[in-house]
């Protein structure tokens, strides 16, 4: 029985080179405006999501119309407005990149599945032929089984005295 093939892409080397060049350009273009965080840093932060954007935007407006409520010595309104503008500017970019990233992950998963399953079928057939004494299959099997450490037959353990 043949495996269903849902994807069969061949990316021309010129296209792949162009894609890699564009990715490098994107990384260079955004580098001055992005910052990585550790998991510990992320854990300690307030998270701003889609629902809080409107809230933060209203607060920005109120800092202009009602500046008397700005906490003295605790809030720098100019820095706050810079951060709000950065969120507004970067959010659509992030969404687009995340969509591309998700689609790439899905494509890699699909291609990987369609490559790994037949490889396992081949491996199983080689393993069977090696068990039947086919010399050339034994050599291939010995080479391929290295990729599956701990998956071989387990030796019986001696009971503890």
Descriptive keywords:
161 residues, mainly alpha
Structure write-up:
By secondary structure, this protein is mostly helical. The protein is 65% helix and 0% strand. It has 5 helices and no strands. Helix 3 packs antiparallel against helix 4 (77-131) and helix 4 (77-131) packs antiparallel against helix 5. The chain is elongated and about 90 Å long. The mean pLDDT is 91.
Q: Give the low-pLDDT segments.
A: none
Shape: elongated
Largest sheet: none
- How many individual β-strands? 0
Number of helices: 5
- Taken in chain order, the helices and strands follow as HHHHH
Share of residues in helices: 55-70%
Using only CA atoms, what is the Rg? 28 Å
Structural class: mainly alpha
Mean pLDDT: 91
The first-to-last residue Cα distance is 51 Å
Q: Proportion of β residues?
A: under 5%
Nutshell version of this structure?
The protein is mainly α and 161 residues long.
């Amino acid at each position: 029985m043949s495996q269903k093939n849902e994807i069969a892409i061949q990316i021309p080397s010129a296209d792949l080179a162009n894609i890699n060049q564009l990715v490098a350009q994107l990384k260079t273009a955004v580098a001055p405006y992005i910052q990585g965080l550790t998991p510990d840093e992320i854990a300690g932060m307030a998270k701003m999501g889609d629902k809080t954007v409107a809230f933060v935007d209203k607060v920005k407006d109120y800092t202009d119309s009602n500046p008397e409520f700005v906490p003295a010595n605790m809030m720098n309104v100019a820095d706050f407005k810079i951060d709000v503008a950065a969120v507004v500017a970067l959010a659509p970019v992030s969404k687009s990149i995340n969509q591309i990233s998700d689609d790439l992950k899905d494509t890699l998963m699909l291609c990987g599945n369609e490559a790994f399953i037949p490889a396992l079928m081949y491996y199983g057939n080689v393993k069977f032929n090696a068990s039947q004494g086919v010399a050339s299959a034994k050599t291939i099997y010995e080479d391929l089984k290295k990729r599956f450490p701990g998956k071989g037959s387990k030796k019986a353990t001696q009971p503890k005295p």
